[in-house]
Amino acid sequence: MPSDNAAAVSAFVEGAPPGELADVIADVKKLTVNEPRILDSITPAFRKYNEEQLTTVKLPGASKNVLISSYNSLEDGRYYDVDSQRSFTFDHQTQKASDVEPYNLDSEHSDLIPALLKSLTTHSTEHYPSATTTVCPASPSGNIALLLVSNKYSPQNFWNGRWRSTYLLNPSSPSSILSGTINVDVHYYEDGNVRLMTTKKIPEMKVEASPALSPAALAAEVVRKIAGVEKGYQEELNRGFARLSEGEFKGLRRQLPVTRQKVEWEKIGGYRLGMEKVHLSTSQLKPGLKEILF
Asked: What's phi and psi for 207, nearest 5 deg?
């Protein structure tokens, strides 16, 4: 049924690995030639993917990426970027931006948000090879959302990866409260299909700051907390990789023979199975074993 097909295609889109949405769309088109309009019917799936994955895009004429999320979403498919003070239309299927207009953010935290963005951008530049950040109000809660995404794609080596950090800051309490989530997604697909997906929930923690602190000082303290959390999680991941390499993955690998050398299977016909070395005559073999070996 068409509805069943749309549900299946939505699942494919929402589960697309980092940097591979275009490949998924191309495959879906091949599989649904009898339903050429099916992709147009699953717009909510494309939107969910781009907002949850913090998809990045360059605005026309710009050199820096901006990101897509539910936090910087406006009505009618438009989004805004705090740093460039621009709003734009975003096509969720093609992942292209257009119709750029000036945009001024109206927020009760208009002094703190730019300070947080500056500190978060400095942190991302120091610790990630390629990252995009934004900070914006998390309406209607009164919180502030701090978003960071770092993508690294290497299709020539058959792998792609993405790091996503989402934090919510409540600056209105006596001690600001920070919580968040870190997601890591890595896809390796050379001669196989292996995908690592992890989620780290960051419980609420206090940001020790006096009410007299300037926005810049509070922002620096918030990002210091974020840097500590992310460093700790990266170290945790490294320990986990080491355990996998020496444990589960090692058990999956094919063991070398006692000679500690790979068998040259193309020359297998020339092997004599060591029969000359042990001087075992075929006449000594048990019934049936001769037929198995030769």
From this structure: -100, 105
Residue 73 DSSP symbol:
B
93-149 pLDDT, tens digit per residue, is 999 999 999 999 988 898 999 999 999 999 999 999 899 999 999 977 789 999 999
Angle value at C-alpha 281, between 278 and 287, nearest 5 degrees = 120
> What tokens does 258 get?
């006692």
Supply the pTM of this predicted model: 0.82
CA–CA gap between residue 100 and residue 60 (Å, rounded) = 8
Residue (of 9, 16, 2) closest to 153 by Cα position = 16
Q: Do residues 20 and 189 lie in contact, with contact meaning Cβ atoms separated by under 8 Å?
A: no
Q: Whole-angstrom Cα distance, residue 264 to residue 257?
A: 12
The DSSP symbol for 195 reads E
Q: Are 100 and 87 in contact (CB under 8 A)?
A: yes
Return the structure tokens found at 83.
């740093």
Residue 81's SS3 state is strand
Helix (H, G, I), strand (E, B) or coil at 42: helix
Alpha-carbon torsion angle 46, 136, 170, 184, nearest 10: 40
How many Cβ atoms are within 10 Å of 284's Cβ, its own excluded?
9
Please state, in angstroms and rounded to a whole number, the distance separating the CA atoms of residues 69 and 59.
15
Cβ(97)–Cβ(59) under 8 Å? yes
SS3 for 133? strand
